[in-house]
Amino acid sequence: MSLDSSALFTDQYELTMLSAALADGSAHRRCSFEVFARRLPDGRRYGVVAGTPRLIAALASFRFGDAEIDVVSRFLDDATLQWLRKYRFTGEIDGYREGELYFPGSPILSVTGTFAECVVLETLILSILNHDSAIASAAARMVSAADGRPMIEMGSRRTHEESAVAAARAAYLAGFTATSNLEAVRRHGVPGAGTSAHAFTLLHTTPDGPDEAAAFRGQVAALGAGTTLLVDTYDITKGVQTAVEVAGTELGGVRIDSGDLGVLARQVRSQLDDLGATKTKIVVSGDLDEYAVAALRAEPVDVYGVGTAVVVGSGAPTAGMVYKLVEVNGIPVEKRSSLKASRGGAKRAVRFARDTGTVVEEVIYPARGPRPEQDGLEASDLLVPLVRGGEAVADADTLEESRALLAAGLVSLPWEGLKLSHGDPAVPTRFADSHATGRTL
Q: Could you tell me the end-to-end alpha-carbon distance of the chain, in angstroms, rounded to an integer?
């Protein structure tokens, strides 16, 4: 968070609920809330958990100082204001590790404490997890479509300035190679990348007309022959020829940002090879999403630059996660509204895989019940401790570890789970309890 306090990243009704609960004595009941998605976005086969470390950091700064109290004092009573001044989350949070896959019904996060200390966290939790998980889920599909080729996130100009930083981090988690966003480089250690835009080429215009060669000379002089030159400001064929004439056959790369990228990539590859620049890479950008990336897989493209599609979740800007109260003083509670029902009781989850590593099922079961077992299948517990006594656990995963976890998770999916076409979730989820064998979502 860029502000000293994250406490006002909150919807007002959370604090009016708090006020009413303090007044009627129910605020201190022991409760469990859970985060889950009832369904995946249309066309998706899996989701990616992302943003957990950002959430834990924001929780540490969830404090009501004078500035925050000044805002909420406009609608809250004195007793509630006094309670907020002393607010510290003292409960426990368990959750799926960042980089873990999730499916419909997966209990992604479990928050336990008093009703008062948990209810005020709803918006903070959902805003971070819904955004980052949506971006990481879209980015993971793009990475799979790229089939091992490097990808650069370059969508900062298409979203809010803070969202851009979080999106760059989530894309890197999902397997992107680098970002153009320097705040993400500073804040999260994501590798940076970038050279120049059309404006630099256009800058080198004289009364005699455009001077593309002068622009290329300037860039090479500053960044070396290993730089990537943007060759489609004017005529691509001439641009490629000029680029090699200026930088030599050791030119690092050329970028194409417009037109029929597949056709142009083939033409440019042939031209580069004929000019002796056989090692010069081709970078393509320009309104790419996972489908466009997949369509270019057979073309001589070396690097993809993805902007708008990744920072807006490629058609699914939210993961659709909800935060629901599931237990009060050990008693399961559940919402029964049509199409918005929840399943009561705190839960755990276990994922079963064959000895080959392929996942076959995720089973969700009561938190205080025995863990289900299946003969011949390997079981992996999914929820891990994140917060104890209000403090973050000491052995949290690093971004690089989360990145590796996701890469391994994608390999564990049944092969059809990586398809971009519509279909069922890659892994079925099933609720199981002591009274029934359970039901599959």
A: 36
CB 191 within 8 A of CB 150: no
pLDDT digits (tens, 9 = 90+) for 347-404: 999 999 999 999 999 999 999 999 999 999 999 999 999 999 999 998 889 999 999 9
Give φ, ψ of 433 to 5 degrees: -145, -175
pLDDT computed for residue 340 by the predictor: 75
Q: Which of 251, 263, 214 lies closest to 234, judged by CA? A: 214
> CB of 92 within 8 A of CB of 282?
no
What is the C-alpha to C-alpha distance for residues 289 and 305, in angstroms, rounded to an integer? 10
Domains defined for the chain, CATH in brackets: 12-135+318-440 (3.20.140.10), 145-311 (3.20.20.70)
Provide the pairing of β-strand 47-48 with 101-102. antiparallel
The secondary structure of 166-235 as a DSSP string is: HHHHHHHHTT--EES-HHHHHHH-PPB-----HHHHHHSEETTEE-HHHHHHHHHHHH-TTSEEE--SS-
Rg of the chain (C-alpha set)? 25
In 3D space, the residue among 256, 331, 339 whose CA is nearest the CA of residue 300 turns out to be 256
Contact 362, 351 (CB under 8 A): yes
Q: Of 290, 254, 247, which is closest to residue 270 (Cα–Cα)?
A: 254
Among 164, 162, 194, 190, smallest CA distance to 175 is for: 190
Tell me the pLDDT band of 342, cut-offs 50, 70 and 90: confident
β-bridge mates for residue 156, sequence order: none
- As given in the structure block, the two tokens for residue 41 are 């976005």
What pTM value is reported for the model? 0.94
Residues 62, 53: Cα–Cα separation, whole Å:
14
pLDDT in tens, 38-73: 999 999 999 999 999 999 999 999 999 999 999 999
- 377 within 8 A of 353, measured Cβ to Cβ: yes
Query: What does residue 88 show for φ and ψ, rounded to 5 degrees?
Result: -145, 130
Cα–Cα distance measured from residue 433 to residue 339, given in angstroms and rounded to the nearest whole number: 22
